[in-house]
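My current task is to audit a protein record that another person submitted. I need someone to confirm that the C-alpha cell line plausibly describes how this chain folds. Take the sequence as given and treat only the C-alpha cells as open to question. This is what I was given:
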Amino acid sequence: KRMGCFDAGGGYYVPVAGRTYRTQCETGKYVSSSTATTCISCSATPWPGKYQNQRAKTSCKDCPDGKYATGNGATGCSDQPALLVTPTYNAKSIVLLADNTARRWAEFRVTLGIWRTKEFAFDVAADYPRTFDATTSGSNYATSTSITLTRLVPGQYYNIQVEARDKDAADDNFHTDDFQIELASTTCGCQSDEETGTPTGLAISQYLGKVFFQWNDQSYCEDGFVLQRDGASFTSSYDVMSSTACGHVHEPESLFDDILASEELAVGQTYTYCINAYSHSIINWAEEESVSGSYESSPQCQAFEIQWEAQLTGRVSLTQQAGKLPVADTVVDWSLGDGELSGSTVTDEDGNFDIYIRTSALNQE
C-alpha cells in the first residue's frame, strides 16, 4: 500500500481529470515542471524560434542558422525563404524592400543596369554595384530592409540584381542565389500593360473662334498624340520629332486647334475632348519578342462648352478740327443684350481700345 502522491517527472504531466497516471508531452511541446498538469508549445518567437522532435522533453531546441520555426508547436525547422525583393516604382527612384524575415542577411549588394534602346543588353550604371547594410532592430536585424535607388531617369528601363551576405559569412561572400528584376522601369508610360503613358493636365481654352489645347506629356516613347472630339478625330495627329521627358508641356497653337466656324460646332453646346499618346511600335527587348503595330494610351478627357465670342476695337480721338489727336486714359463703357453684359476698358497712349467678350449668357442666335 502506497502513501502520498508522486511527482510527474520531467517531460511528463498529470491531467487534472485523472490523477492516477502521468502522460508524455508530445513532439512540439515540453514541460519543465515536475508537477505540471499540461504541456507548453515550443514558441516560434523570438526568431528563428524553437522546436522539439521528441516526446517527454523538458525544453525545446533552437532552430539552427538558415532555418526557422514556421509557427508555435513546431516539430522541426524549415529552410529560410529565398531572398525576396519587392520593388516600388516612381518617376525618378525605385524603392526595393528586401525581406529579411530570417534575420540572416547582414548586407545587400545592388547592381543597377541601364538597358540599351532596342537592344537586349544593358550597361552597369556609374557607382554600381553598391552595398547597403541590413536594417537593425535592437540587437538583431529587422525583418526587412528598404533600399532607395535615386537619380533615375523617368520612363527608363533598368536591370536590378540584389545579392545578400549571410551575417556569419566573410565580407565579400555574397550569395550567388540572388534576386533579379530583369525589366524594372521608372514610371512615365511605356509600362508592360500600357505602351504609352496617358497625358495629364489637359487644359482647354477658347479665343477668337478657336479652341486651344495644352497637356503634360507622360510618355517617353511616344510618336505623337491624337486629339478627338466626342470620339471622332477633328484634326491630324500631333506628331513629335523625338520623345520628350515626362512632364513636358505641349501647347500647339496652329493646325491642332478646333475652329468654331466648323459646322460641327455650335455655340452653347458642350463637347468632350480627349487626347492620348500613341506609338507606332514598342521597344523590342529580345529577338524572339517582336511586337509591331500601333499602340495608344488611355485617353485624358475633359468636357468643354463652346461660348459666344465677340471682339470690338476702336479709337478715341479729338475732332478733325482739333487734329484728330489720340485721347489716352479714357474710360470706355460698353453693354450688350439689354445690359445683361457690360464692362469698361481704358484707351492706351494712342487712344486705341479693345473689347473682348466670351460668355455663356448668350446663345448663337
Summary: Confidence is low (pLDDT under 50) at residues 282-293. The longest strand covers residues 105-115. The chain has no helices and 32 strands.
